Amino acid sequence: MDIFRDIFKNVAELMYPPRCPICEDIIKDKPVCEKCKKSLNYVGSVRCLKCGKAITDDEREYCGDCQKRKHLFESGVAVFQYDDRIKGSMYRFKYKNRREYATFYAGEIVRLYRKLIEQYGVEAVVPVPMYEKKRRIRGYNQAELLAKELSKLLKIPMIDNFLIRSKMTIPQKELSDTQRINNVKNAFQIRDIGVKYNKILLVDDIYTTGITLDECTKALKAFGVKEVYFAVVCIGKGS
Ligand SMILES: [Zn+2]
Ligand SMILES: [Zn+2]
Fold this sequence. Notes:
Blueprint: H1 2-15, H2 34-39, H3 64-68, E1 75-81, H4 84-95, H5 101-120, E2 124-127, H6 132-138, H7 142-154, E3 163-165, H8 177-184, E4 188-190, E5 199-207, H9 211-222, E6 227-235
Parallel strand pairs: 1-6, 2-5, 5-6
Antiparallel strand pairs: 3-4
The structure holds zinc ion (2 copies).
């Protein structure tokens, strides 16, 4: 049967050749094209100790946002600064069924932050959940695809039936700061699956204000989780 699987794979590749997740050029045997690889806007090593955002002044420990707003999670990492190209890629990943982008994005998280994530000592990888009805309509939750890849690469189990979104929310990007807080307030709940965790790694595609991650953290900590970290693909520019 292997031969049929190979033929099928080859035909599928001819019809739908793998494409660069950033510029959509055809690529072969690599996760991203050379041009994009060189010009991607990585967060870099001078980062906010809390949210992982790039900061310009390396004397400072926290970004302007984290100095103003206290977060409930411990800390986290982000790979890219949210620029127009990543924005386009994230849009296709989220809404245009480009599920395969998860391989590249999770691969980059692990390539850059494996050590740090291992230091967190998390017991499970948990995707930021989508409201179940919404997930059924879209067919997938992009955070879950990322978490699944991360779980494979880091050899840490993914738990996707533990944290649930119990409230239908409006996409955060359409709202003001105050509306955002109310929008996701108490939107998450824990389903008791009979296991206790001390340390969790939350996974999402984009970090905007951290409010969603805070609300997830609130639900997790109310259930007894002691420390919550996160990994995201991209994050806004710091100050
Ligand atoms: Zn490219
Ligand atoms: Zn920060």
